[in-house]
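Cross-check.
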Amino acid sequence: MAGGTEKRRAAEIYKRLQKMGCPFLEGVYVSEPQSIHELLCTPSVIRLGILEWICTRVYPPLQEQFSVLKESEGDTKMKEMAKLGFELMLCGDVDLDLIKGLAHSGKQLSFMGELLDIIQSSPSLCSNSELESTSQGTDEAFVTYAHETEELLNELFSSVHFQATLTPECNPWPADLQALLLPEEAQERKLPSGKDRTHGDYLKELEKISTALKDLKEECTFLCSSVPGGETVIQKLRLALTDFHQLIAAFIQIYENEFREHCGHPAPQLSPSGPLFQSVHTLLTYCTKELEAISQLSDTSDTIAEMVRKRQQTKESWGGGSTATIYEKIKGLKQVYETFLNSLAK
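Predicted model, tokenized:
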């Protein structure tokens, strides 16, 4: 039985599929959470059709590829869907159990949910009417991300605080490593200042950047939607640019709020008693180990004494059907031995 969290997750994905107009849900009337969970996480023709529809929405060229396959080539479809999930870093390249519906239900729901997130987050995947303008919209989005990243990098490298970070007043290296790092620290690390540059220099750099972008676009043939796998690569590039932009923005925010006030502090005074502290620490470590050994010896002695005491007080069978403690047995043997000696003396 599925847990309450998985049932709610399945109901959420089912509602999203209904809103997106999944054709495989037409004529399917389920309302109970358990029924919805079984529909989405149990191997069936409907479930495989839903997953196939989601994959073709994420990567439209798959629809044309699937249309020429025969019904007996279902394994090929599943391999292509697993390959798509692997390229999107959502599953393994041979994770066929996830496609067939044999994997854990939580993993299946997470896989479907992430695919739906990709569809809803990409404007070019939201409706079929926009498929013709996919290439143009993708190029514009790529150029927009590139410009935004370029502006952010210019702002970052021209910041005074970034210069202070590159050459901090407080050296973080230990005293025993500073001598080895002096040649590297002596090098001046400066970025070109914007005050010494003219508008002509900026125009020349912009022309170089524009020419480089044109050459890059000619080399990156995968940016064309007619190339197989092009849209998947574009999705990855867009995701990488977005993550890079967010990382730099988060670094700037953390630096402004937390790091900046600590950059102007004077270097700390290092204590000359470092070797003494290390010697004391070593002696204390040895003392601790000796105390642990004494404690273990005491515990072992107590354990042996307890075992001997139990052995003396526990009655055991010594043969002949009689039971007695070891003390009583030794005492009886002693009496037998004395009787035997007395009989020999007579």
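The mean pLDDT is 77. The chain has three domains: 4-121, 132-170+194-262, 314-346. Passed to J.P. for a second look.
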